[in-house]
Amino acid sequence: MLFKKTALVIALTSAAVIGSAAQASQISAAGYATTSSATSSSGNNFTMLGKGGGLTGGNTDTAMTWAGTVFTASSDYTGPGGASNMTLSSPTLFFSYAWSAHDIQVFAPGTYTFNTALGGGNPESGIQTLTVGAGQLGAHMLFDWNGNNNIDVSVLWNPNAAFGGNQGLSGAGLWNASSIDGNGDGIMGIPMASGGPFFGFSANFNLQGITPAAVPLPPAVWLLGSGLLGLVGVARRKSKKAA
Q1: 128 within 8 A of 190, measured Cβ to Cβ
Q2: 154 phi and psi, to 5 degrees?
Q3: For the residues of 78-95, what is the DSSP string, one character each?
Q4: Which of 33, 45, 189, 206 sits between 20 and 30 A of 101, alpha carbons compared?
Q5: Is 36 helix (H, G, I), strand (E, B) or coil?
Q6: Average pLDDT estimate for 199-213
Q7: According to the model, what pLDDT value does residue 10 have?
Q8: Cβ count near 26 (within 10 Å)
Q9: What is the pTM assigned to this prediction?
Q10: What's the whole-number mean pLDDT along residues 57-66?
């Protein structure tokens, strides 16, 4: 009887572990990023933009570590304490208070939705959507500031570009992962949910050391280019004969 009980406990524990793994299935970022191994960098940029797009604050000394993996499904987000594959931190205060970002998950191309009420500790509501296109990466994280915990933040990155909302904080250089307008409102970033302290504000993180994969031109484009070159050659030969 003892053996059977022990076997049952082991089986249930194994099932729970497998179920948990299925909800947080990290895969290698190979094919989605030019760097697909663990990496880190410093001197990264955090810029918070207000509802109208104006600068409200940020810093240029954010440290980043990335595991070189991506998540591929909305169900991979399980709220506070879930699996994470990136860290972001800075010693610089934001409006006189320390901030932290945790439970950061980097996502491969696809569309992901996050229930902002899931985190708890902050009265947010609604669904935050992150649509990651080909040649891009995205991330979702929980942001803590001044006793306001688990504020949902989503970021969409383009490869090797300048930050369009640089506002004097991010500098004029290129970022390996440059934060872009993720919801089409003309303001860099994705607005935060209602109920939180930054409702309608957009948190942007611009990073070095994590580069989304460039989108290769489809074969049809190369064929079109070859065809156009061929037509140019024919036209030149006809022109020479006519002369």
Answers
A1: yes
A2: -120, 145
A3: -STT----EEEE-SS-BT
A4: 33
A5: coil
A6: 96
A7: 31
A8: 18
A9: 0.80
A10: 96
Rounded to 10 degrees, the C-alpha dihedral 96/65/127/33 comes to 140
Q: What percent of the chain has pLDDT over 70?
A: 78
Q: List, in order, residues 6 or more apart from 26 with CB less than 8 Å away.
A: 67, 69, 70, 71, 76, 83, 85
Arithmetic mean of pLDDT over the chain: 83
Distance CA 7, CA 241 (A): 89
Nearest to 192 by CA among 95, 125, 118, 132: 125
Spatial separation of the C-alpha atoms in residues 57 and 35, rounded to whole Å: 30
Predicted confidence (pLDDT) per residue in 112-162, tens digit: 999 999 877 678 999 999 999 999 999 999 999 999 999 999 999 999 999
* Residue 100 burial (C-beta neighbours within 10 Å; 0-12, 13-18, 19+): middle
Domain ranges for the chain: 23-212
